[in-house]
Design brief:
heterotrimer; A alpha/beta (536); B mainly alpha (347); C mainly alpha (288); A: 536 residues; alpha/beta; 6-stranded mixed beta sheet; 19 helices; 36% helix; C: 288 residues; mainly alpha; 74% helix; 0% strand; disordered C terminus
Chain lengths: 536, 347, 288
């Protein structure tokens, strides 16, 4: 039997500071073969990125390998990766492609730097190699891309350049660390397809580090699930996702939103359709233009009924966040009208809206939960603040009682209330943000990607919480997300936005099963997914 | 032709924008000097009158002739008109026109300031880069301590101490007065910068002489700005080193020197350049102190002497000159930034 | 009630921990305390009258009688330095206080309000902070007249744009943060957002700036008086003392420059180290 391309055996890595030492990898072992893709899957802090960086020899100074070996093509590279191997033997594709490229150097020079670091080529040969690389990563506009600075290219093109850089010196192994973070769904798919194709064509090995189970399932031959610095389960994607053995893997797979996952019993959903025919919010011909003349929101109209949940789906730059801010009256409307319970609320300026009676009826849950909490306020103060500002303030002990009760209803224990944002986890911050929004009993809750920054398991809990709160309190939701599956789970109706315009609107089951527009179909197709057992 | 058409307008627009932004500040400075000239004690009419016994009528007559009885806005317009034609008034102490005096003395100040700037950059850039590269090391701590020490020495103290140690005590430096031994033949004046003039004339004795005189004042001034420049370089390099593209460069196996110079220093240079602008204006201020200590025949000592003897026309001229210099320097830096950072020139 | 106690406890910051984390800054605090105590107690502990001349004992080298020697009029240098400490510290503190209050008010307003007023202010402030401020201070003292009060105003005015800039940029950077938008949604008035949300959060940065600025203000004030601006003649001030002493350097009377110059350096150093220490303490990211 041939030796695998890369073998990691019993690897232990510790982060040390002056006073303490903390082990982040507790003896992990894995191997990668030529032409195969190994996915390292895990939540944040599971040690999957550290594994990649250790292999590359890019650990920060404070981190040391305490035990174990890493062998690449039979050579021990545990503690030192020779420069000749970096780039030419093992290459890496990073997240946030735009940031991964030097902003003050032309693409051509950056690629040439990489090639010349390993090969002596004359000018003509170099040029030929550059053009060849561009073709390999399917860039057609070769000369423009080569002469451009990274900021002049789109995120997707930048990622192709980064991939071109990685394959420039024909490495045997590529480590892709969350290669699609910061890219839109459609771009994400093409970048991943490209990476997979190159891996197969050039018979390289690839380690795909990702938090996205769907992506791991779709693009890998082998999956290792990591948690707290250990590999809890490994196997082929089919095995792992259809019949997970480990308890944690099982929970992870269950929590991952897919085409069939549901939050509630369908009959309940049916019952809801008939209730609340009154229109709560109506948006007519909404327009928001920014100084440069760019129309972030372009003639958008829709309505939300009482107790209904409307999903707003779109890629970055589609205007979905702007719409949520317009409706919550954080920014001023350029033209169009927003009617809440039949009264127009778009005439009052955003600056003065805090005085309006509708202020407490429309509340907002922010995307970055931790960032939406005043760093100098305890959870208690954050939650009680809206009540103090907008009333009615209950007398004496009733106030504290109400806060504690609200906190409990979002699953926060009483001792959490004394903590500051930096002392809480992301999930806990999200719960505080929700508690703060619902304590004044709003009629409409606007949720701007409330789970985008959360790990899968926490996301599932928060989604369940939101669904329960809606049923208990009869609120309406405007749920903004880029994740189609999440919207389908939570919402009755959905709107698909693109470049500030509505592309498609309708009931969720219709949109997802029989999309009318081409764009929606593309979006649905691009989501990385794994087929549950029944579908395989 | 078309390429030029493509290139020029943004550049011109950029220069125009920058100058336009500086105009309000320049206007404020002019207004300030105007008010200063009016508020300050001493009636020019009385001064220019025939003598202490000049009659009231004669003074009134002169006031009228000089336009001093006109309403303030008119006087201000008149003042602006004078400025535009380069008339900065006449110095009472030297008896020459201020514009001429300054023209003679400006090269001395520029030579001093530019030498000091070059000296400090030569020290700060490598120091900051290496300190950041090995940040947290003993060397880094030493550099930081050195900066703290440099930063707290007022230039007038360090100058006097340098003179004491290098001239009186060790006898290393020449007599710390003036730019060049006035008994030696002077190189022909072309740029006014002695180092350049003497080098152009091939007069190396004079060059050595001038350079010798320049060492102490330039060092004094450089010492004052080494700290901010080094700190800024260090901070900028550290922030660049944390950037994703440096990690990419490392992962791709680029040679260390290339990462250090082409990837790190090149990107760190932009914030440093901004600091250079601020440092330059600090130096223009410190010029006053240094020129006084070393009896340097520059514009700042000229203005200071005038200020002490209540001769305000040179002071006004000096302030206006500083304002113009400052606008010019910032324009140059801004254009350099545009060259260095491709992202800037696009917007 | 109990909740308040817990809050207080978790916020408390032991001085022992401060010394361990920032030994240099702690040392700077120690040095500053000594200087301040000396300055406050100057009239009591001065061995001689700082203004009384004693010509027969002029230009004496430091000895047991006159610790720091005497100047050309026979005045005791040590007593003069103590008296000068009083003056220099009060000039610096009052100048920084004036510019801080005025600058932060204007900066917060502009930064929060945004719009054209803010852009214009920003431009002007940018230009001003890059302007040769020392020259401006010189001119100001010349126009306003030679007095200590005017020296303070001049120093305050040249510090003013820095506070506007820092307050403005700190407020503008936070204006659109999640927790400020959340405050809007919670029905908080703009005034309250600035005072209760933004100001407490930018205060640490301002305090750091003020500490660094105190050193700078002393440097400026001493520089101006070194040039003979601001301080009337017999009043002892460090910059004036250095200027006087410079005449006697050539004859080897080093103590006339070294002691006041040294005091200046130590004071400025302490303020700077304190500022750096505070900054490191408040922003763990800058710690290497």
């Amino acid at each position: 039997m041939n030796e695998p391309l890369l073998t990691i055996d019993g690897l232990r890595v510790s982060f040390t500071s002056d006073r303490s030492s903390r082990e982040v990898l507790h003896g992990i072992s894995l191997s990668v073969e030529r032409g195969k893709v190994l996915a390292l899957v895990g939540e944040s802090g599971s040690g999957k990125s550290v594994t990649g960086l250790t292999t590359m020899g890019l650990l920060p100074k404070q981190a040391v390998v305490t035990e174990g070996t890493i062998r690449f093509r039979g050579q021990d590279i545990t503690r030192h990766v020779p420069r000749s191997l970096r780039g030419a033997g093992i290459a890496m594709v990073f997240q946030n492609p735009r940031a991964a490229l030097n902003p003050t150097r032309r693409v051509r020079d950056q690629l040439a730097d990489v090639i010349r670091a390993h090969d002596r080529l004359d000018r003509a040969a170099l040029q030929a190699r550059l053009v060849e690389l561009m073709h390999q990563v399917s860039i057609t506009d070769v000369s423009r891309c080569l002469n451009a600075y990274p900021h002049q290219l789109s995120g997707g093109l930048c990622q192709r350049i980064v991939i071109a850089m990685a394959v420039a010196c024909s490495p045997d192994l590529i480590i892709a660390d969350e290669p699609t973070t910061g890219l839109d769904v459609l771009t994400q798919k093409s970048a991943m397809d490209l990476l997979l194709r190159l891996t197969r064509e050039q018979d390289m090995g690839m380690i795909l580090v990702t938090h996205d189970l769907g992506m791991a399932a779709q693009y890998s031959d082998d999956v290792a699930v990591m948690r707290h610095g250990e590999i809890v389960e490994r196997g082929t994607p089919e095995m792992l996702f259809s019949n997970p053995q480990n308890n944690y893997t099982r929970r992870l797979v269950a929590a991952c939103p897919n085409e069939t996952s549901l939050l509630e019993a369908p009959e309940d959903a049916a019952a809801r359709q008939e209730s609340g025919p009154a229109v709560l919010l109506e948006v007519r011909n909404l327009v928001k233009e920014y100084q440069s003349g760019f129309r972030a929101v372009d003639d958008v109209s829709f309505s939300i009924r009482q107790g209904e949940c409307l999903g707003l789906i779109g890629e970055s730059g589609s205007g979905k966040s702007t719409i949520s801010r317009l409706i919550s009256r954080l920014v001023d409307v350029d033209s169009g009208e927003i009617l809440f319970n039949g009264t127009s609320i778009s005439s009052l300026s955003a600056e003065d809206f805090y005085r309006a009676p509708q202020r407490r009826q429309i509340q907002f849950v922010f995307q970055d939960a931790a960032g939406s909490l005043n760093p100098r306020y305890t959870a208690f103060r954050s939650i009680v603040d809206p009540l103090l500002r907008m009333g009615p303030v209950p007398e004496g002990d009733a106030l504290a009682e109400l806060v504690v009760q609200t906190a409990r209803s979002v699953g926060l224990s009483e001792d959490m209330l004394e903590r500051y944002p930096h002392q809480m986890s992301g999930g806990q911050c999200a719960r505080v943000g929700i508690a703060r929004a619902i304590i004044v009993s709003p009629d409409l809750l606007i949720l701007d990607e409330p789970t985008a920054a959360l790990d899968v398991l926490v996301q599932a809990e928060v989604l369940a919480l939101l669904e329960r709160l809606r049923r208990e309190r009869g609120m309406s939701y405007l749920f903004v997300s880029h994740d189609l599956h999440v919207v389908r789970m939570l919402c009755d109706r959905a709107i698909i936005l693109r470049k500030g315009r509505i592309v498609e609107a309708g009931r969720c089951e219709n949109i997802f099963h029989a999309p009318q527009s081409n764009y929606t179909a593309q979006l649905l197709e691009a989501i990385p997914h794994f087929r549950p057992a029944a579908c395989v | 032709m078309s390429a030029e058409k493509h290139l020029l307008p943004p550049l011109v627009r950029r220069i125009g924008l920058r100058l336009g932004a500086a105009l309000p500040a320049l206007f404020c400075v002019i207004l300030f000097t105007f008010i200063m000239m009016r508020v300050l004690p001493g009636d020019p009419a009385v001064y220019f009158a025939s003598g202490p016994n000049a009659g009231q009528a004669e003074i009134q007559e002169l006031r009228h002739k000089m336009g001093l009885d006109a309403p303030m806005p008119v006087q201000f317009l008149h003042y602006l008109e004078n400025l535009v034609t380069g008339d900065l008034g006449r110095s009472l102490t030297t008896g020459q026109s201020v514009a001429r005096d300054m023209q003679e003395r400006l090269p001395a100040s520029l030579e001093l300031t530019l030498t000091a700037l070059a000296l400090s950059l030569l020290i700060s850039l490598p120091l900051g880069l290496t300190a950041a590269w090995w940040s947290g090391s003993k060397y880094d701590q030493f550099v930081r301590a050195f900066c703290s020490a440099c930063f707290c020495i007022p230039p007038f103290v360090s100058g006097i101490l340098l003179v004491y140690v290098c001239y009186y005590w060790l006898g290393l430096a020449p007599d710390p007065t003036g730019r060049i031994n006035i008994f030696l033949p002077q190189p022909p004046r072309l740029t006014g910068l002695l180092l350049i003039d003497s080098a152009l004339a091939g007069d190396w004795t004079a060059w050595h002489e001038a350079a010798g005189q320049l060492v102490l004042p330039a060092t004094t001034m450089a010492l004052f700005v080494i700290a901010p420049l080094t700190r800024m370089t260090r901070a900028a390099v550290i922030s660049v080193l944390g950037a994703d593209y440096i990690r990419t460069a490392r992962a791709m196996g680029l040679p260390t020197w290339r990462i250090m110079i082409v990837y790190t220093l090149r990107n760190a240079l932009m914030p440093v350049l901004t600091t250079v602008g601020i440092v330059f204006s600090t130096m223009m201020g410190a010029n006053v102190l240094v020129e006084k200590i070393f009896s340097w025949p520059g514009v700042a000592s000229y203005a200071l002497d005038a200020l002490v003897s209540s001769d305000y026309a040179p002071v006004q001229g000096f302030i206006l000159l500083m304002a113009c210099l400052f606008i010019l320097v910032n324009l140059v830096i801004d254009l350099l930034l545009g060259v260095l950072d491709p992202r800037v020139s696009v917007e | 009630m109990t909740m308040m106690n817990v809050t207080m406890r978790s916020k408390r910051f032991g001085f022992g921990r401060f010394i361990r984390q920032q030994p240099v800054a702690a040392l700077a605090i120690g040095g500053l305390s000594i200087i301040v105590i000396l300055a406050v107690l100057a009239p009591v502990i001065s061995p001689y009258d700082p203004l009384a001349s004693d010509v027969p004992h002029a230009l004496l080298a430091p000895d047991g009688q006159h610790w720091f020697g005497t100047d050309e009029l026979g005045r005791d240098v040590f007593s003069r330095i103590l008296a000068a400490a009083r003056l220099d510290l009060s000039i610096a503190v009052s100048a920084v206080a004036i510019s801080l209050v005025a600058g932060v008010t204007v900066g917060c307003f502009c930064g929060y309000q945004g719009g054209w007023l803010d852009r214009v202010t920003g431009r002007i402030v940018d230009v001003l902070t890059a302007f040769p401020l020392f020259v401006m201070a010189m001119a100001l003292v010349a126009v306003l007249g030679n007095s200590i009060a005017n020296l303070i105003y001049a120093t305050a005015i040249i510090n003013f744009p820095f506070y506007i800039r820092i307050a403005r940029s700190e407020v503008a950077a936070r204006r659109n943060l999640g927790w400020v938008e959340a405050a809007h949604v919670s029905g908080t008035s703009p005034t309250r957002i600035v005072l209760m949300f933004l100001l407490p959060n930018i205060l640490p940065t301002i305090v750091v700036q003020a500490s660094l600025n105190l050193g700078w203000a002393i440097l400026n004030a001493a520089g101006l008086s070194f040039l003979g601006l601001g301080i009337p003649v017999p009043t002892p001030e460090w910059g004036v003392m250095v200027a006087n002493g410079a005449h006697f350097m050539s004859s080897g009377r080093w103590w006339l420059v070294v002691f006041p110059g040294g005091m200046l350096m130590v004071t400025i150093l302490c303020f700077n180290l304190l500022g750096d220490g505070l900054r490191d303490l408040l922003d763990p990211r800058t710690r290497s």
